[in-house]
Amino acid sequence: RNSVNTHLEITLVETGIYEVKAVQGQMVTRQSLAVDQGYLERTGIDGADLIREVFDILLQHEALAAVPAESTLEQLVAHYPYLSSELQKRLSPKMPAYQTVEHARITSAPAEDRPTHT
Q1: Coil, strand or helix: which one is 92?
Q2: How far apart are the C-alpha atoms of 35 and 105, rounded to whole Å?
Q3: Which 3 state secondary structure label does DSSP give 108?
Q4: Bridge partner residues of 18 (DSSP)
Q5: pLDDT tens-digit series, residues 46-62
Q6: Using one digit for the tens of pLDDT, what is the confidence trace for 54-100?
Q7: Within 10 A of 27 (CB to CB), how many other CB atoms are there?
Q8: How far apart are CA 51 and CA 108, in angstroms?
Q9: I need a labelling partner for 96 at 20 to 30 A (CA). Which of 13, 44, 51, 102 fits?
């Protein structure tokens, strides 16, 4: 639906935490997505490749603005039931079902991006 017209820039911020800058026409969004590092190591899948596939699938079904600003891959799989099976089709045979992954942590935005209260 929207994935063809969306440019993604994926940056590894820290181990298992990726920032995704998505540009779709005039709209620019930034999402932070945590992926369990142990899962990536067990499957041998590159984190940036996995994130690209996740966004490609999501944007075929959802509007860019509907993608959460901060989440874990586990949360996305729980919220969008089609995501796990689509990822398995695209990335198999390497990729086992994502439900087996350990719980990944959520990180807050960097301090400079947080609103300050005085």
Answers
A1: coil
A2: 8
A3: coil
A4: 12, 33
A5: 999 999 999 999 999 99
A6: 999 999 999 988 899 999 999 999 999 899 889 888 877 555 554 43
A7: 12
A8: 19
A9: 13
